[in-house]
Design goal:
Blueprint (H helix, E strand, L loop, with lengths): L1 E2 L4 E5 L11 E5 L9 E7 L2 E6 L3 E6 L5 E4 L20 E5 L6 E2 L10
Parallel strand pairs: 5-7
Antiparallel strand pairs: 1-2, 2-3, 3-6, 4-5, 4-8, 8-9
Length: 113
């Protein structure tokens, strides 16, 4: 759930229609540009790792041993941040603009209702 008017994003476990009371993170997205707004996810053995570059964590109501939340991309050998790590096996990236594509598309999907 993204509320661009209030510069916040809620990412919750499972399928939710309303703001959850548990199992979520709340991010400040005031420094995230609309064009650069992309989320990366990697499935771990017991959970996942998620990144929303240039966001700031406001609240975290997740088991941080299972769910890792990052606010910046990994950097390449030259120190340049990029999404390459999140395009490996068991990972994907998705832009938040309408009808964005998953990269690589074999690693995940988004349900839009």
């Amino acid at each position: 759930m993204s509320d661009y008017g209030n510069n916040e994003r809620i990412i919750a476990l499972g399928k939710v229609r309303n703001r959850p009371k548990t199992d979520y993170i709340k991010l400040d997205i005031s420094e995230v540009t609309e064009l650069g707004d992309e989320i990366g996810v990697c499935w771990l053995e017991n959970g996942w790792q998620l990144v929303n570059d240039k966001s700031k964590i406001i609240e975290i109501h997740l088991d941080t041993a299972k769910y890792v939340v990052k606010t910046s991309w990994y950097e390449d050998a030259d120190g340049v941040p990029n999404a390459a790590f999140y395009r490996n096996a068991n990972c994907y990236t998705v832009g938040t603009l309408g009808y964005s594509k998953i990269h690589p598309n074999s690693n995940g999907y988004i349900v839009r209702e």
